[in-house]
């Protein structure tokens, strides 16, 4: 962990949020009522009780319009092809715009801030080797493929944040990837996978129980906590990612619909199976298929990502498990349900979670990491300047998160806590703010 970089984030982050409120007029509001500090913020008026889908659309549209009004030249459909350097100093960018290629000069610096490489399987395997086999899906648009990181590497940059991601639990294995496949699947979060992320029977390919570390708000031993999200999402992702062959197998029966719909397990955030009511004031921004979690769940069944079977034996075969393995696990589970006490020595389920698997049809799926962001990227200093392996600055080159790496240290498998110091979206805001501030400071400006 680069302690100096961590401290710089801690100092500059609140300034960034305050600047967005004071200078840009962003009406921040706390996203939860727990007195923990440094928790989630949202744009006031952009979340309803049932609807937080596409919440960032308004934010980014507002910020883009604000930038244009203040003279920023925003060019869409402009593909950055390469950095331009002169005697080791980055002085511009080669850009493709339609059939034309143009060179844009940069008098004060180039900031690489185009996301990470979640979609790029060769890069995932190279820079996240310990957890690569457990990364199932990207729950975001399929755009972060790592080109800007590779541009920095072409200038001799070092990398930081190996084996670090921002991942959630319950990533569905929509397919088994071929050995030399280059792209991940990308199925958006809140697509019905909420049904798979409850404390059902979880096992690995050896038939061993996979621990469930907590609901969204209640980490083990499943008591109320003042620190939401941490165990329930990122730590659970680590558990599922690191199972043998990177697969965790989830099994439940037809009672799931009522249990998920009523939020029986008292989940939060993206583990809640939500149905958006027709009179929701923000319903127009939600695609029709996402207005009821059951639609996405059925899509997974139709695609074969979730198996639906009449018997446990059939489900066992459909999931590719060894004969008798799931049957035995379900028998042991049902016996514990009847006894009212979990048989695990550690991470025993709350007795109210012991719901027998005895009403067909039966459902099952292979799950692993839902990788939102890569936390490995170009090594930077607290001024957001890109560094060479020897620590020298690459003149004229800056990087923001998540093109930059190291914000979460090394080997932070799923991004504890909750994606990092500021989470993923806010981390991007803070990185851009810090890079712009450093460039202004180098130019003798403070405002």
From TrEMBL:
> Where does the secretion signal sit in this chain?
none
Instruction: Tell me where in this chain the FAD-dependent oxidoreductase 2 FAD-binding domain is found.
Output: 10-409
Does the keyword Oxidoreductase belong to this entry? Answer: yes
- Gene Ontology MF terms in the entry: steroid dehydrogenase activity, acting on the CH-CH group of donors
Q: What Pfam families would the database entry show? A: FAD_binding_2 (PF00890)
The answer to whether the entry has keyword Zinc is: no
> Which keywords does the record carry?
FAD, Flavoprotein, Oxidoreductase
Q: Which cofactor does it need?
A: FAD
- What protein am I looking at? FAD-binding protein
User: Which species does this protein come from?
Assistant: Rubneribacter badeniensis
